[in-house]
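User: Here's a structure from my thesis project, written as structure tokens. My advisor, Dr. K., wants to see whether a designed sequence matches the one we expressed. Can you design one independently, without my sequence as a hint?
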């Protein structure tokens, strides 16, 4: 679709009904993800973000893991609702992007820049959040739908073993994506814009 940047940001939504009939090639999807991974800023350019992209059966396996991890924690009636959500909103999609931060890189930065060591964890989260938002927006601008999920740390160890993830990689979020099967709710402003920002200097022009 290739909207302008502002249009793409304003258009982004959480899609909770996903399909897997994706017409875009895997190569195009991966090229977009790789471009953003190499372009989104990180503290001192340490490039601590790590991604795992799961497609096809590998994507389905992730949500099987999530379902299995949740089952012992929820009573039978609640679990039916959870199963339905996993099936229609996540597993039914085309793929999932797993977002990680490499703790070895962050520890290295703390040692080389000790004056800023206490801020590194916050900067890491901010950088990861920018990457999540960038990929989310780009996927939607390609005509796909996505949402952001956080089943970590519940699934961390099983996912690490299943895909042989480096021990230094810390799981931050999961982003299932696929074809949008329903129109999401419009953006709602729970607090007026005027209550959320201050402006100074309007008299300068």
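Assistant: Designed independently from the structure alone:
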């Amino acid at each position: 679709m290739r909207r302008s940047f502002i249009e793409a940001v304003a258009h982004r939504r959480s899609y909770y009904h996903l399909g897997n009939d994706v017409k875009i090639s895997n190569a195009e999807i991966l090229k977009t993800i790789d471009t953003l991974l190499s372009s989104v800023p990180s503290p001192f350019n340490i490039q601590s973000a790590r991604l795992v992209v799961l497609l096809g059966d590998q994507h389905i396996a992730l949500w099987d893991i999530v379902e299995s991890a949740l089952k012992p924690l929820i009573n039978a009636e609640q679990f039916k609702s959870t199963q339905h959500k996993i099936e229609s909103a996540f597993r039914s999609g085309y793929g999932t992007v797993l977002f990680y931060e490499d703790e070895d890189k962050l520890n290295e930065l703390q040692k080389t820049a000790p004056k800023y060591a206490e801020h590194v964890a916050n900067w890491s989260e901010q950088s990861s959040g920018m990457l999540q938002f960038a990929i989310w927006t780009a996927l939607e601008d390609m005509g796909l739908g996505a949402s952001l999920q956080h089943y970590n740390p519940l699934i961390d160890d099983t996912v690490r073993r299943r895909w042989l993830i480096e021990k230094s990689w810390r799981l931050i979020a999961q982003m299932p994506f696929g074809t949008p099967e329903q129109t999401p709710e419009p953006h709602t402003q729970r607090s007026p814009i005027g209550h959320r920002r201050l402006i100074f200097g309007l008299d300068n022009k």
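When you compare it with your expressed construct, this may help: The chain has a mean pLDDT of 94.
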